[in-house]
Amino acid sequence: MYNSNNSFNNYTKDQYESVSISRSYVASVFSWMFAALAITAGFAYYFSTSETFLNLMFSTSAGIVSMSPFGWVIMFAPLGFVLLMSFGYNRLSGTALTFLFIIYSVIMGMSLSFIFLVYSLGSIYVTFAITAGTFGFMALLGYTTKIDLTKFGSIMLMGLIGIIIACLVNFFLRSAMMDYVISVIGVLVFTGLTAYDVQKIKRIGAGIELGSESARKMAIMGALTLYLDFINLFLFLLRLFGSRR
Questions:
Q1: Residue 23: how many CB atoms within 10 A of its CB?
Q2: Which of 62, 80, 98, 102 sits most deeply, having the most CB atoms within 10 A of its CB?
Q3: For residue range 27-57, what is the model confidence (pLDDT) as tens digits?
Q4: Is this model's pTM higher than 0.85 or not?
Q5: Distances 242 to 92, 115, 181 between C-alpha atoms, Å
């Protein structure tokens, strides 16, 4: 005879297991993200105090300080790592992706060391705290909301493409007003992307097999996504509110 109670119990048990797996996966993603942020912050501060490294990063000619060839390599190297991890995802092992993510966070620290030379230490700390609070609130919103953020995320991704194009144009125009507008839009876009990406990661976690190679690789890529959301939000806020030395 059909037992509706047993069916209900099995259903709720499956639901509970799915939620538990999703939470474990999300926790793993955030753990890797926090670890990468800590590595980046530590190395950024360390390299900002290294005279040898700074002499390699910058060159002085006729009293004008400019980026050296080595400095440009360091600045663009993180982009190469992101592309390598993204396009090499299917061919790379979980161990290889993890290693690349750690090295990437170190190089990001090297490339971000300049902020300690441009902005006051106090404003960096305050901006970081604001970023952490904003990121945490939007992450919680993305995790708990019942609203499907897929369409919203698509709009934010379109905004991201617009920001990239605008940054390339302003690289040549060097307009202070355009830079301000880009920073404001950047804050809005990465604030929205945080909620969207957390919801996406939560959904991925609901259908993943914990402990598998695929789960490990996806956790690293999820951590990379949230890491980029946090770093970009921080940098745009710093451009808006940071006090220059």
A1: 14
A2: 98
A3: 999 999 999 999 999 999 999 999 999 889 9
A4: yes
A5: 39, 10, 16
